[in-house]
Amino acid sequence: MRVGLVCAHAGPSVEGSTVGTYQHVARVAAELAGRGHDVRVHERRDDPDQPESVELDGYRLERAPVGPPAPLATAELVPYVTEFGRWLAQRWSGDWTPEVVHGHYWIGGLAAANAVRETDIPVVQTFHSLGVEQLRHLGQRYDGPGERIPLERALTRAVDIAVAQCNDEVDELTRMGLQRSSVAMVPTGVDTEQFHPDGEAAPREQRARILSVGGLSPRHGQEDVIRAMRLVGDAELIIAGGPPAAQLADHGEARRLRELAERTGVADQVTLVGAVPHDQMATWYRSADVVACTPHYCSAGRVSLEAMACGVPVVGYAMGGLADAVVDEVTGKLVPPGDVRALGVTLRRLLTDNAGRFAYGHAAVDRVRCSYTWERTAGALERLYERVVSRRKPVEAA
């Protein structure tokens, strides 16, 4: 099958992020190519020195010369959606035409739908996050472009199937107007050859270690873990993510978190290590006794799944992808979102329960290997593509 994957963002989608949309797309492409499909990934070129086309892991990556050849924020990409769609349509009118198109994130989905609006090529869409859901959870901290929410609603009317990554997202997409039969639940995958319990661990102190992973911004909830440390006792909190360590001193959110640690009296327990390359994250997970996942919005739960694959129990907020990934009192503990006291008490109890952590860790590894491998994700997408291709239903332009 010829599959076109469209992701408007070039390279990692979030500065300092250990996991994200781009890594997801690249792995899906490689897995599908390994299953014998002819896969091409289309993204925007953001560097004039980048080649227009390159072969990677069995698939072809093609870069569209759309907009300035420089990194652009999501809001700055919106004016180039139509141009990107025209470039895709032209690219697909030659000797290679996809049988199915899969848009990623709302910008990529809009470009894909625009490109095939006059064809019968079916469109599958993974949003990775939804503006209306982010707005609900983040409130005033939501900083997405104003046109995002209405454009996402329009996009739901232009696709054959929307792929949700958690049950909360299924519910949200149906509230946005999609029929339940037009929403498929396909969780993200985990590289179990990279993330596993056996291997090196990052150096650590004798005291217990809590690890928090995510880009440095208020929506990732690191401040909740810092506040909870007052109830935890003698343990260290490592915060991984954000810009490189050398740039942390000039980073506004890093300074805010350090000031918060000072005010709450836990500064000597909190360490910010900055960005960690994704291929080194397993060593950090394995060094931790517990991984705390406290984002204010979470669609995929990738961090929790990677931690679980490394045999580390997770304490997280009962929401989104976390509520699906973490089985409460089996692979970790779930607490009400935003309940800092429950978070602190739960972390303290789990850190003192060696047998409980051991049992949770073993169950976590089994859960990931049974339900969250990339092979399973690719297989589900393959069946989904076959279903929409067999229908060959024309799509409405967004």
The largest sheet, given as strand count, sense and whether it forms a barrel, is:
8 strands, mixed
Shape: globular
CATH structural class of the largest domain: Alpha Beta
* Structural domains: how many: 2
Tally of helical segments: 15
CATH homologous group name of the largest domain: Glycogen Phosphorylase B
Low-confidence stretches: 12-19
* Radius of gyration from CA coordinates: 21 Å
CATH architecture of the largest domain: 3-Layer(aba) Sandwich
Terminal Cα separation, in Å? 25 Å
Kindly state the percentage of residues in helix: 25-40%
The SSE order reads EHEEEHHEHEHHEHEEHEHEHEHEHEHHH
Q: What fold name stands as the CATH topology of the largest domain? A: Rossmann fold
Helix and strand content put the structural class at: alpha/beta
